[in-house]
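User: I'm putting together notes for a lab meeting next week and I want to include a structural view of one of the chains we've been expressing. I don't have a solved structure, so I'd like a prediction I can at least talk through. The sequence is below, exactly as it appears in our construct file.
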Amino acid sequence: MRQCLSLMLIAVTLSACQTDGGSSAKAPPIMSATYSFVADDMVKKLVVRSAFEGPTTLAVRGDNPEFTEALQASLGRQGYPVENSSGDGGDAKAETINYAIEAGEGNVLVWLSTPRVILSRIYKETETGPIAASPFSASLKSGDGQ
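Assistant: Thanks for the context. Below is the predicted structure for the 146-residue chain, given as structure tokens.
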């Protein structure tokens, strides 16, 4: 968990340090095709890692509605029931997938966390579409889900 928090802290720190002639530069928006590509890639890895116990309802939590939608669709295609992200608290038994997605200088850093595993990967946005720019980083959590 510390590695994951360290990775996120570094990403946030680096994104905050980007400047353009003394003024803060905003990262370009993530391309729509990237959301679907990244979601499919990450979900496939979650399934391989057996990140979930049996058929369970999943709840996706993060602050990017487009990526939330892409993750929900990808999980649904893999056969997982997905809680609607209406924000009403939902199913108390749902397993939560927390995520963060950050863009900067043509790269997209993605981090997913379930009760059993943490995954992260960097993707590069190119003219022909997104590609993986790093290997997966995977960490298994201890048995208590922490």
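A couple of points you could mention at the meeting. Residues 34 and 85 are 20 Å apart (CA to CA). Residues 2-23+31-140 form one domain.

User: Perfect, that's what I needed.
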